[in-house]
Amino acid sequence: MATTFENNTFTDVMFGRKSIRVYDENVKISQEEMLEMIQEATTAPSSVNMQPWRFVVVESPEAKETLKPLIRFNTRQNDTSAAMLLIFGDMECYEYGEQIYDQVVAEGKMPQEVRDQQLDAIIPYYKNLSKQEMNDIVKIDASLAAMQFMLTARAHGYDTNPIGGFEKDQLAEAFGLDKDRYVPVMILSVGKAAEEGYESVRLDAQTVTSFK
Question: Across the chain, what does the average pLDDT equal?
Fold first, then answer.
């Protein structure tokens, strides 16, 4: 049964994870629970609430075979995980702007006139951003959602491993996406660890922090 953040201590969720490369192949995650975790992950912060994160859940043997040649030295995660979560940033996320802000109004969280004013400013602004500026925005937002998913999965009793080593120029098209619109951000393997995992170290906070 899935757990929630309330059932786990902060220490368990934040500091209990290790780098997991091999998963229990007998553990599967239902599509219902995967959608629940993704829904929880999308409570992450988003610039002007445009929510540019997009997800592809690679779980079938056929889809994993498609992914395998694109993930370089991360094949163990692909072979054993319950799923590989491909995370993209949508360069045209503003197309959902009206739908998002209409929902905000419908839920009584924003007056109609404020909705109109904000969209009149936001959508033209986003459309006029350079490709690099838009790329930066969607990657930051999608990365926040990725980290949120990792914490959510941990709270549900699963383990994850973030993967950055893959063929970024081929990933979108391999799964039927427009490579010019959908920018690959990272891949997360998710499942139940079948090994202890690797511990690592972090620099002391005093080394990476300055007070002014």
Answer: 92
